[in-house]
Specification:
This protein is α/β, with parallel strands linked by helices and 383 residues long. The chain has helices at residues 17-29, 45-52, 67-80, 91-100, 123-129, 140-149, 173-182, 204-209, 216-219, 245-258, 277-281, 297-304, 317-321, 335-347, 349-366, 369-382; strands spanning 5-9, 35-41, 56-60, 85-88, 108-112, 134-137, 157-159, 190-195, 222-227, 232-235, 241-243, 267-270, 285-287, 308-312, 327-330. The strands form three sheets. Strands 3-2-1-4-5-6-7 form a seven-stranded parallel beta sheet, with helices on both faces. The chain has a six-stranded parallel beta sheet with strand order 12-9-8-13-14-15, sandwiched between helices.
Length: 383
């Protein structure tokens, strides 16, 4: 069997679902027979995590690189390390990887699609997708959109579900109680929380605004937790972290709202937690209010912990929620619609328990690392 020498290409300073998952996937592949290297930014969270896991990294110091400049770096790495496969993880990295192997048909190219498949049928994308040997997604709905919107052979489309460490998703009542006590949760209160970047597209503003549509009596029984950090764009000359302007403004707005008279004690902004599973455990209901989420890792993780999900009727979330089987859906961009969902679970706690149990069964069956890693290593060999 021919050895696999794999180069991952992922240029991002952010640390959201895409970056977290692709990093975890690479770390898991490190324990297989695949030999791998990763081309990524020097000062990124990604490279720190990979180095800690003993993964071989190829640091890129420049924050802004053209597609051609990236392609040159990829070609250099391909030559020096006798690479047999490229694995790109962002749209721009897919472009650069296609350019890098333009005249090299021996190196295979796998593209992981984490985002929605918007129409791309122009002649440039037709040329690019000829140089993609497999396009992978965790979502059946996304692959349906790819068939319709991308100029790529349907035989190249692969459904490979996200892997998760199922053994980590175990309730710990003592940790749950301690975290809830830290934020002053009362015995009769329901905690609805989200785990995401502070980003307008994640529906964070609307989730906070949902509290405005609850009566005073309903508000007494609810806390909303927004767990996550601002979108990082890089570092200034002093080495300080810089944030996307819109994300920073939204963060400040949440801070202001959480200390306002009516909402004080009912809206909590909590930094991203490296050990985030106990915080999911501390919730009663999970919410992802994104305008058009592709296929959310945080929804999977919430289901692993047996949490009912309030999602939006857009993107890949309905596929994950299963209609009304594992949660309920609200219209995107509507604080009032989210408030109606919160009100439903306030009145029907038995439904929240039922949805959570069904979600856990579904997530455990569909999302586990042994299956995911086998699918990827088999794919590398087949192509």
């Amino acid at each position: 069997m021919k050895p696999i020498r794999l180069l991952h290409v992922i240029h991002s300073y952010s640390w959201g679902g895409l970056e977290l998952y692709s990093t975890e996937l690479i770390c898991k592949l490190q324990k297989t027979s695949v030999e791998q290297w990763v081309l990524c930014f020097e000062d990124s969270r990604i490279i720190k995590e990979l180095r800690a896991a003993g993964v071989r990294v190829l640091p890129v110091s420049q924050a802004k690189l053209s597609k051609l400049a990236k392609a040159k770096l990829i070609r250099k790495a391909m030559r020096e390390h006798e690479i047999t496969h490229l694995h790109s993880h962002t749209r721009l990295d897919m472009w650069s990887s296609c350019l890098a192997r333009w005249f090299n048909q021996d190196v295979r190219h796998i593209y992981n699609l984490y985002m929605n498949a918007l129409p791309k049928r122009d002649f440039v994308h037709r040329a690019l997708f000829k140089r993609v040997d497999a396009l992978c997604s965790s979502s059946e709905d996304i692959l349906k959109d790819v068939k319709k919107n991308f100029p790529i052979d349907p035989k190249k489309l692969k459904l490979i579900r996200y892997g998760r460490d199922t053994e980590k998703f175990i309730p710990h009542p003592e940790k749950r109680d301690a975290i809830r006590a830290q934020y002053g949760v009362q015995a009769d209160q329901m905690v609805v929380g989200t785990l995401c970047r502070i980003d307008a597209q994640k529906g964070v503003r609307e989730l906070a605004e949902a509290l405005d549509y609850l009566s005073d009596e309903e508000l007494k029984k609810v806390q909303i937790w927004i767990i996550g950090d601002r979108t990082i764009v890089g570092h200034n000359e002093s080495g300080e972290t810089t944030y996307e302007e819109e994300s920073q403004a939204l963060y400040e707005w949440i801070q202001s709202r959480s200390s306002s008279g009516r909402l004080q004690g009912h809206l909590q902004q909590i930094p991203f937690q490296r050990e985030y599973i106990p915080y999911i455990d501390a919730l009663d209901v999970f919410s992802l209010a994104s305008y058009n989420e592709t296929y959310s890792l945080s929804v999977i993780d919430a289901m692993m912990m047996g949490k009912a999900v309030i999602g939006t009727n857009a993107g890949g979330t309905p596929e994950q929620v299963g209609g009304t089987e594992r949660g309920i859906l609200a219209e995107p961009r509507s604080g009032q619609a989210l408030a109606d969902c919160i009100r439903y679970y306030l009145k029907n706690p038995d439904k929240a328990k039922k949805h959570g149990d069904k979600g856990r069964d579904w997530a455990l069956h569909n999302h586990n690392w042994p299956n995911t890693l086998k699918h990827f290593t088999d794919l590398y060999q087949r192509i």
